[in-house]
Amino acid sequence: MAEDTHHGSAVADRYATALFELAENDTQLKAIEGDLGRFAELLGESADLRRLVKSPVFSAEEQARAVSAVMDKAGLSGLVANLVKVAAGNRRLFMVPDIIAAFRRIVARHRGEVSAEVVSAEALSDGQVADLKAALKASLGKDVSLATRVDPALIGGLIVKVGSRMIDGSLRTKLNSLKLVMKEVG
């Protein structure tokens, strides 16, 4: 199983590296980041799109047609659209979230930043994102590139992942820990 994860990660890294190398300048990198972020938002918002991306039931042609229609409607084109279509054609559409994460890590490294993923129960305000970036910069000593996503199942709080470190301050985890303690006492 660990080998499969490593293999998948290596493939995602290759796609992300190719996308990074196709960008000709920092302006284009920013545009690609924006388009990838928009596609990630679409995945987060639509259970049907997530099912299309993850399900092996759909043929490569069906995935490519459907994802092309979604991207056209969302106004996504260029390198990001091509990447997603190639991934669909190669039966690797399920890897697009990993490719997005790998691309963000490459760009962060290119800019001398540390890449962090933040999962929150509700969308973070611009002020909260700025405060979180400042706190992480003070802790890590480097600028931080944040990728945020919402998971209402957390109930409250945050989960912050930086490299191999994870800080879980979610209410869900705290309640689960309390439940375990209560079982041991009772």
Summarize the structure.
With 186 residues, this protein is of the alpha+beta class.
Task: Pick out its properties.
8 helices; 186 residues; 65% helix; Peroxidase, domain 1; alpha+beta; 12% strand; 2 domains
Question: Which class of secondary structure composition applies to the elements?
Answer: alpha+beta
Head-to-tail CA distance between termini: 37 Å
CATH architecture of the largest domain: Orthogonal Bundle
Beta-strand proportion: 5-15%
Lateral strand order in the biggest sheet: 2-1-3-4
Global outline: globular
DSSP summary, beta strand count: 4
Tally of DSSP helical segments: 8
Rg, Cα atoms, Å: 18 Å
**Overall mean pLDDT:** 90
Largest sheet: 4 strands, mixed
Report on the structure:
- The protein has 186 residues and is of the alpha+beta class.
- The protein is 65% helix and 12% strand.
- The protein has a 4-stranded mixed β-sheet with strand order 2-1-3-4, with helices on both faces.
- Strand 3 and strand 4 form a beta hairpin.
- The longest helix is centred in the first third of the chain and has 21 residues, at 2-22.
- 19% of the residues are buried.
